[in-house]
Design goal:
The protein is of the alpha/beta class. The chain is built from 14 helices and 10 strands. The strands form 2 sheets. Strands 2-1-3-4-5 form a 5-stranded parallel beta sheet, sandwiched between helices. A 5-stranded parallel beta sheet has the order 7-6-8-9-10, with helices on both faces. Strand 3, helix 6 and strand 4 (about 125-130) form a beta-alpha-beta unit. The model has no long low-confidence stretch (mean pLDDT about 95). Bound molecules: 5-amino-5-deoxy-1-O-phosphono-D-mannitol. This is Glutamine--fructose-6-phosphate aminotransferase [isomerizing]. Its EC number is 2.6.1.16.
């Protein structure tokens, strides 16, 4: 049932191109110009009435929600807040009838996320669920449902569910933008065209697994490491750090690159690995200067950059992994893949139980 792979996690990482196609293709019109989400049952009138969005989720789904915030804010220019569900439900969030609450959950059974959904509904908001399980508790109780067609995810460490959640946010953001008229039709078409290239682009990253295995093996000798980035790169850094902690038990922290000098830089010492995401062209010079800060303290830096800028970035880092070129908003759908593989191979090198890490369960149905 692992289809020739040693672990479910590796199989699921390799299923991402298919998960992308399955999640996106039926929702893109044949002419490739717009996104249609009739299944949501959300009227244009309701969409036009949304004044703010709250995204609520746990763990990896929360990290997808961090990217979702940037996607919706930049495509639609509506304010979005992203919270972890266990915080949201107890912080008396300001929920009004013109708030759309989006809960994100692979399993659709996470207790805190389900409680947040109920809290939102009690306050008069409508809830959209992005979930991978048709008929799950969250799918049943939400007012609107957008299914991620990632297929069954067995490994505790979520991979294809996360990337499918990103696709769901791209689709929903484009759907909102198209309905409200927040973006030029030509831009929407450009995003869709780039989205359609993602499956093949992921395949080309998977073909370079051997390099990432080597990186992971050298990382596995360390006790601590850092992930840094700005904008959506910071969101992906957080996901990369969680994945590594979860299955390799190596301590890591994700930091907004510009925040390092406000304290964390004190922890950078000779030889410490730093994984720097540098995919956002408008922030690229800034991140490069943060890379210089850690390099000056002896860090060993792996840069993850877009094809096209990789030669420039290579000058500032010790090692470089290039991801195929895409739009800045879509880069998380590619840049997370090398991080998933690094975590996988680090766990493998340390001989941990990759699919069933200690102390964790696939579905967290208790608070
Ligand atoms: O099923 P959910 O998406 O609601 O699960 C949320 C988290 O428990 C989950 O993403 C967890 O963080 C993963 N094990 C991370 O890989």
């Amino acid at each position: 049932e692992k289809a020739g792979f040693d672990h479910f996690m590796l199989k699921e990482i390799h299923e991402q191109p298919k998960a992308y196609r399955d999640t996106m293709m039926s929702r893109i019109t044949e002419d490739g110009k717009s996104v249609e989400l009739k299944e949501l049952g959300m009227t244009a009138e309701f969409i036009k009435s949304i004044r703010k969005v709250h995204i609520v989720a746990c763990g990896t789904a929360y990290h997808a929600g961090l990217v979702g915030k940037t996607v919706i804010e930049s495509l639609v220019r509506i304010p979005v807040e992203t919270d972890v569900a266990s915080e949201y439900r107890y912080r008396s969030p300001i929920i009004t009838p013109d708030t759309l609450v989006i809960v994100v959950s692979q399993s659709g059974e996470t207790a805190d996320t389900l409680a947040a959904l109920r809290e939102a509904q009690r306050n008069g908001a409508r809830v959209l669920a992005i979930t991978n399980v048709v008929g799950s508790s969250i799918a049943r109780e939400a007012d609107h449902v957008l299914i991620t067609w990632a297929g069954l995810e067995i490994a505790v460490a979520s991979t294809k569910a996360y990337t499918s959640q990103l696709v769901a946010f791209y689709l929903f953001g484009l759907h909102l933008a198209g309905t409200i008229g927040a973006q030029e039709a030509s831009f929407i078409e450009e995003v869709i065209t780039s989205m359609k290239q993602l499956p093949e682009q992921v395949e080309s990253i998977l073909e370079q697994s051997a390099v990432l295995k080597q990186v992971a093996e050298s990382i596995s000798h360390h006790k601590h490491l850092f992930f840094i980035g700005r904008g959506v790169d910071y969101a992906v850094a957080q996901e990369g750090s969680l994945k590594l902690k979860e299955i390799s038990y190596i301590h890591s922290e994700a930091y907004a690159a510009g925040e390092l000098k406000h304290g964390t830089l004190a922890l950078i010492e000779d030889g410490i690995p730093v994984i720097a995401l540098v995919t956002q062209e408008e922030l690229y010079e800034k991140t490069l200067s943060n890379i210089k800060e850690v390099k000056a303290r002896g860090a060993h830096v792996l840069g993850i950059a877009n094809a096209g800028t990789e030669e420039e970035v290579a000058k500032s880092v010790d090692e470089l992994f290039a991801i195929p070129k895409t739009l800045p908003l879509l880069s998380p759908a590619l840049s997370v893949v090398p991080l998933q593989l690094i975590s996988y191979y680090a766990s493998l090198a340390l001989e941990h139980d990759v699919d069933k890490p200690r102390n964790l369960a696939k579905s967290v149905t208790v608070e």
